[in-house]
Amino acid sequence: MLRYVTTNPGKVREAERYLRDGSVERLDFDYPEIQAAELGPIAAQGAREAYRHAGEPVLVDDAGLFVEGLDGFPGPYSSYVEETLGVERVHEIAADLDDRRAAFRCVLGYCDGDGFAASPDPVDRGDRDAAAAAGPDGEGERSDGDGGEGADAETLPVKLFEGYVPGRIVAPRGEAGFGYDPIFEHDGETFAEMDTERKNAVSHRGRALEKFAEWFEDR
Hints:
By secondary structure, the chain is an alpha+beta fold. It has helices at residues 9-16, 39-54, 78-84, 87-95, 130-134, 196-202, 204-216, and strands spanning 2-5, 24-27, 58-67, 101-111, 123-124, 158-169, 184-186, 189-190.
């Protein structure tokens, strides 16, 4: 059984569109997030922590809104910025920019305690953030090499899958969706103006899930 680590049942329903019926369940696990300028290391560290907690295959996602004219801000800090500044304030900041292009990005991190064969999709072996994943004392746990509980970051490779959808920042429109959906326009509509089926078909998470499901079918 694959455990999707999220507090949002809607994410699991979206994953079920791409995976076999009954193959994924929600896992409510609050893992500590590292601070990083990219989504990949955050998802990778979360997948390792979740696998150590669950002891079975896990899927973790991290996502963000990247505004070109703000050098990618809010990016990995999107949730914090939404809670502190608010979505309308982000629009106000972007409204004065000459370049209001933006993108939603999502990175899925998969970990099952085993290694992965080479493929076009990136594998994070913990090299970039081993210290953060190892714990506050900076020393990784000793491992018996089987990739189970007690394995350190070096023995828990994580498979990463990225989804990307381009758009631009606009004044808030639409009543559906959540988060930055009202100010993110893709192909003439904001995400908040799309119904669930339309949004899932073009969303960054959906595109990452499609890549993952194709690979996971042969796992």
